[in-house]
């Protein structure tokens, strides 16, 4: 068993244990391998080991690895900040864009998807901690933002994503995850065109257990899966 395979197996155990505490199974949690800086060979190893999807942060890396066939066998997500001038390289090339964080980006995705004749699935990135160093829609602006999606038929919102401030306070982390889950539940109870609250993507290598305990059903894990980046 390769080290990546061993890491995936260990992650699956931790995911299942956390999910069980919330009355769910490990299979209810989507494990996204955060493949930033990883080689095509490492990405293939992660897919072989059974990750549910691959998540790329950078458009250039995504393009290069697509050309190398690195993601074959797993859905591909874009999980980093996406600039509007690079939308054309991502729309239609990935199954899910997790990081829609502004109206201009939403409009650009809809326009390119319309030109391609497809519906691009996305998550809305929420800045739940209102951290000036993070991208995302503030919670108070989210209802108006979701109303806008009803006007754009080439986008389908599948849920929400968040990234927390890098401050390392476990109590605050759990509290923000809990707030994010409540936002997710509140939106699920409302009716928006082009919106389905299927996925709540939150939690990374250092806090994915807390994220699952607070309701995440999609996590993005990099260093715990691949080892620390150089």
Description:
- An 8-stranded parallel sheet has the order 7-6-5-4-3-2-1-8.
- It has one domain: TIM Barrel, CATH 3.20.20.
- The chain is globular and about 45 Å long.
- It is an alpha/beta fold and 230 residues long.
- Helix 1 (3-20) crosses helix 2 (40-49).
- The chain contains 8 helices and 8 strands.
- The two termini are 23 Å apart.
- Strand percent estimate: 15-25%
Question: Please, how many helices?
Answer: 8
Q: Which of globular, elongated, flat, extended, rod-shaped describes the shape? A: globular
The CATH homologous superfamily is called Alanine racemase
Q: Tell me the major beta sheet.
A: 8 strands, parallel
Brief summary:
38% of the residues lie in helices and 18% in strands.
Features:
alpha/beta, 230 residues, TIM Barrel, globular, eight-stranded parallel beta sheet, 8 helices
Write the layout of secondary structure elements.
Layout: H1 3-20, E1 30-34, H2 40-49, E2 53-56, H3 59-67, E3 76-78, E4 96-100, H4 103-116, E5 120-125, H5 142-149, E6 155-161, H6 170-188, E7 195-201, H7 208-213, E8 218-221, H8 223-226
Parallel strand pairs: 1-2, 1-8, 2-3, 3-4, 4-5, 5-6, 6-7
Helix pairs in contact: 1-2
């Amino acid at each position: 068993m390769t080290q990546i395979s061993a890491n995936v197996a260990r992650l699956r155990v931790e995911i299942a244990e956390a999910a069980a505490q919330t009355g769910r199974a490990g299979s209810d949690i989507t494990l996204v391998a955060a493949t930033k800086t990883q080689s095509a060979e490492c990405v293939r190893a992660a897919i072989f080991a059974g990750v549910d999807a691959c998540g790329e942060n950078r458009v250039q890396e995504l393009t290069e690895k697509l050309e190398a066939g690195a993601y074959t066998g797993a859905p591909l997500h874009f999980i980093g900040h996406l600039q509007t001038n690079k939308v054309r390289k991502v729309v239609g090339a990935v199954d899910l864009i997790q990081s829609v964080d502004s109206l201009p980006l939403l409009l650009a995705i809809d326009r390119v998807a319309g030109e391609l004749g497809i519906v691009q699935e996305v998550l809305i990135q929420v800045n739940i901690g209102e951290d000036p160093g993070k991208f995302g829609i503030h919670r108070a602006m989210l209802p108006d933002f979701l109303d806008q999606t009803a006007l754009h038929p080439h986008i389908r919102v599948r849920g929400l994503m968040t990234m927390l401030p890098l401050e390392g306070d476990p109590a605050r982390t759990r509290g923000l995850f809990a707030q994010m889950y409540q936002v997710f539940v509140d939106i699920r109870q409302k009716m928006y065109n082009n919106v389905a609250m299927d996925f709540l993507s939150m939690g990374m290598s250092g806090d994915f257990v807390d994220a699952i305990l607070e309701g995440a059903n999609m996590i993005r894990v990099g260093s715990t899966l691949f080892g620390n980046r150089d």
